[in-house]
Specification:
357 residues; DHBP synthase; Rossmann fold; 2 domains; 6-stranded mixed beta sheet; 37% helix; nucleotide-binding
């Protein structure tokens, strides 16, 4: 028996540190680096990093494209911090909020050549913490000073792996849509957000179940936002399951297409500046959709389902279910919640993300 934390536990600590503005150490075959999230960095910690050596601000290729910075490493760009660059400069590059007001941020010098593996991993780790995907990275050969030390090779494997989910509890929860309903709670082994399954009636495990993978939407599901169709989709899916007497709705905590509520609000602010939803994500440094639908397949399997009638307008959900061994016997369209406020958003999802609207 050992009390030593495993790689999932180490990464959970690292994410918490980065969210609080505490550096972490990445240990790889090519050396060691210190990593500090640009969004949560303080002037004092930036100064400490600069004292350790030459600092790079590592951005995703999406963000680098907006800033006209060369991403020589393909998916990331290592921007060299100028000698007079302070915290304001760093955060202006990481956060696109003032891009239109202050468009001239360069010219930016980016590194070319050398191994960028640890820099790439640094951005992936910061992104997994649901903060802006921009990391300050400096070579390091000093003492640990109590910082979380992350073994790079094991971390890369873990970040790619599908989450391991444990069933925590289930209980009867009568709903307006269906009095015979049960709520199942699933907790990832890595300590991240819990996910839920609402089971309507007693679906036959031997037949395709009417199912929906619904991503959490605080603004749409709870506040009734008119900027998306999430709330109406949630209610319509539960209503149809209630009418049929059976179904399962998976409520996955992947707010904002997987970028978190704070970044989703940043994307909304960019949309108010005239960018569509995909352009806003790219300016922030994210891909169109950062969600992991493998979670849904894992929950369905744990509940005993192998086939679904999937309520979705998103072909990517169908593809991932089938790739994970869940047969999709039928796609059930879910066309509700169209408003004047979300017309452009829905048109963008159809044109750029392939949604069947």
């Amino acid at each position: 028996m050992t009390l030593t934390p495993d790689i999932a536990e180490i990464l959970a600590r690292a994410r918490a540190d980065l969210r609080m503005g505490v550096p972490v150490r990445l240990d790889g075959a090519e050396g060691r680096v210190l990593v500090l999230a640009a969004e949560t960095a303080s002037a004092a910690r930036l100064a400490a990093l600069r004292a350790a050596g030459p600092v790079d601000l590592v951005l995703t290729a999406r963000r680098a494209e907006t800033l006209k910075a060369r991403a020589y490493d393909g998916d990331v760009a290592r921007v060299v911090l100028p000698g007079d660059a302070g915290l304001d400069w760093v955060q202006a590059l990481a956060d696109p909020a003032d891009d239109l007001g202050s468009p001239m941020k360069g010219p930016l010098e980016t590194r070319r050549g050398g191994d960028a593996g640890l820099h790439r991993l640094a951005v992936r780790l910061v992104k997994s913490a649901r903060i802006l995907p921009a990391a300050l990275v400096v070579p390091w050969d000093g003492a640990s000073d109590g910082l979380t030390a992350v073994p790079a090779e094991a971390a890369a494997v873990q970040l790619d792996a599908a989450a391991v989910l444990d069933h925590v509890v289930s209980a009867r929860v009568p709903l307006r849509a269906a009095e015979k309903a049960r709520l199942h709670v699933f907790r990832p082994a890595d300590g991240s957000e819990e996910h839920y399954a609402i089971e309507i009636g007693r679906p036959d495990r031997a037949a395709p179940v009417l199912a929906r993978l619904h991503s959490a939407c605080f603004t749409g599901d709870l506040l009734g936002s008119l900027k998306c169709d999430c709330g109406p989709q949630l209610n319509a899916a539960l209503a149809q399951m209630g009418a049929e007497g059976a179904g399962v709705l998976l409520y996955l905590n992947q707010e904002g297409r997987g970028i978190g509520l704070a970044n989703k609000m940043r994307a909304y602010a960019l949309q108010d500046q005239g960018f569509d939803t995909v352009e806003a994500n790219h300016r922030l440094g994210f891909e169109d959709d950062e969600r992991d639908f493998r979670l849904g397949a894992a929950i369905l399997r744990k509940l005993g389902f192998g086939a679904v009638r999937l309520m979705t307008n998103n072909p990517a959900k169908i593809a991932m279910m089938e790739a994970c061994g869940i047969a999709v016997a039928e796609r059930v369209p879910l066309k509700v919640g169209h408003t004047a406020e979300n017309a452009a958003y829905l048109a963008t999802k159809a044109a750029k993300s392939g949604h069947l609207l």
